[in-house]
Amino acid sequence: MKVGSSSLRTAEGRLDADLATHLIDAVADLRERGVQVVFVSSGAVAAGLAPLGLRQRPIDLPRLQAAASVGQGLLVHTYQRRLAARGLAGGQVLLTPDDVVERARYLNARGTLETLLGLGAIPLVNENDTIATEELRFGDNDRLAALVASMLGAQLLVLLTDVDGFYEGGEVVPRLTELSSAIARHSRRPGSDVGSGGIASKLEAARIAAFSGAHSVIAHARAENVVHRTVLGEEIGTWCPPSRHRPESRKLWIAFARTPRGRIVVDKGAARALIERGSSLLAVGVEEAEGAFTVGDAVDVVHDGRVLGRGLSGLDRETVERVRGRPTEDLAEAGEPTRAVIHRDSLVVLPHVP
């Protein structure tokens, strides 16, 4: 379950302790019923604004980090104090992008979260805003929550926000399966002045969850009994169902934890081979290479303007440009690299729906 900054901040700019307590009580109720819950909470920056005399979220990194430093302690103390009153422990887990991008750190983070859950504790997760640099940020806790859900094989991702769900034509959409097209329509809408994610980031999180085999719900954090109603499967907010097939964890890691460094455009024949036969991507099927990627970097595979998948490149961009469109036999005769541009074991074909 993830709650956003906008929901946790009062009109005066302080942390809404009443809502924070209400939500953590709901988490405690679920834990007492045998449901394992990871609570991903934004709000560190928002909680630190008022104590520092700041009226709105800063745009410069040093003041963002300062606000996070002050606010994180206030936020976690609020949660831990209430959990202790319920006889439960809350364990703070601060993550940076490297913790889900670098494989060893990914496995270590997963082990820590699984151990906390196994001991009956509630993991209290947030991005480590105090030390994260602008170039290496998740950008919003929606994606972080989805990656944690994927990491743990969660069944449900609950995204609590300050709107009633995903709107189309002025009405909340109760069930959404066409996530890719919805993201394309709404990706340019800005987020609030307190949080860093808008509805597009929640749709992207829902897409990650769907691909990971999890349901997701986007709902208003202040809706009556929102947590219990969501977990019980009541119709509230916008529900996004999971995909039918969940790939193994390494491919999920390739698909969503790695930031793509470029794009490889493929022809129709290559697109069909990737989708229908699960083939490796060979140089002959490549039309164009974009970006500044090198060997081992994640790249998106594109055909006809649509992202077909993501993989780890076996060649750097300059080499791909040099060998593109050429059969393997010709490359061998010319002394060029003949290995796959992206090997099938390092390639994830993304589902079109959702």
Describe the 3D structure.
A hairpin with a 2-residue loop joins β6 and β7. By secondary structure, the protein is α/β, with parallel strands linked by helices. It starts with a strand and ends in a 5-residue tail after the last strand. The protein is elongated, with a radius of gyration of 22 Å. The protein has 14 helices and 14 strands. It folds into 2 domains: 246 residues, Carbamate kinase, CATH 3.40.1160.10; 90 residues, Archaeosine Trna-guanine Transglycosylase, Chain: A, domain 4, CATH 2.30.130. The chain has a 7-stranded mixed beta sheet. Strands 11-10-12-13-14 form a 5-stranded mixed beta sheet, sandwiched between helices. A two-stranded antiparallel sheet has the order 6-7. About 3% of the residues have low confidence.
In short:
By secondary structure, this protein is α/β, with parallel strands linked by helices. The chain is 40% helix and 18% strand. It has 14 helices and 14 strands.
Topology, element by element:
Layout: E1 2-3, H1 5-8, H2 17-32, E2 39-41, H3 44-49, H4 61-85, E3 90-95, H5 98-101, H6 103-118, E4 122-127, H7 141-152, E5 156-161, E6 167-168, E7 171-172, H8 179-186, H9 199-211, E8 215-220, H10 226-231, E9 238-240, H11 249-257, E10 262-266, H12 268-277, E11 286-291, E12 298-303, E13 306-312, H13 317-323, H14 328-334, E14 347-349
Helix pairs in contact: 2-4, 7-9, 8-9
Domain PUA: 262-343
Family: Belongs to the glutamate 5-kinase family.
Function: Catalyzes the transfer of a phosphate group to glutamate to form L-glutamate 5-phosphate.
